[in-house]
Design the sequence.
């Protein structure tokens, strides 16, 4: 995460904060490494970790950052972020063009088996909002 922040121009790292293996990676290699790392960490609600461990399709800040640094290439089977979001967008019948957007958070229409009164936004967090057709 520090290297991502550095490349996005947010921070300057001191010599002892630099991971030289990560520093030498291309933006694309950093994106793929971040995607594999996110696949292998578990979700937690502990302060400071909640946003970092949030599901890729529901607004993970690491995905948001790597998308700005190096947008995903559609059809790239080596990029776990692209694979995840392509599948999610297809299931939700939404467009995806290599960059996560908040539009991917909700299905365009409620699923056929959805409760008419409520729609579960994020299964990890259990947030429920009232669903009203047409907004």
Sequence:
């Amino acid at each position: 995460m520090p290297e991502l922040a550095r490349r996005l121009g947010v921070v300057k790292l001191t010599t002892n904060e630099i991971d030289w293996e990560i520093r030498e990676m291309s933006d694309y290699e950093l994106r793929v490494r971040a995607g594999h790392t996110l696949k292998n960490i578990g979700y937690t609600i502990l302060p400071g970790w909640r946003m970092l461990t949030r599901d890729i399709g529901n607004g993970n800040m690491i995905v948001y950052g790597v998308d700005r640094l190096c947008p995903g290439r559609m059809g790239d089977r080596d990029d776990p972020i692209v694979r995840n979001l392509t599948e999610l967008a297809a299931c939700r019948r939404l467009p995806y063009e290599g960059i996560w957007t908040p539009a991917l958070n909700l299905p365009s229409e409620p699923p056929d088996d959805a409760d008419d009164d409520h729609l579960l936004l994020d299964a990890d967090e259990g947030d429920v909002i009232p669903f009203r057709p047409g907004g």
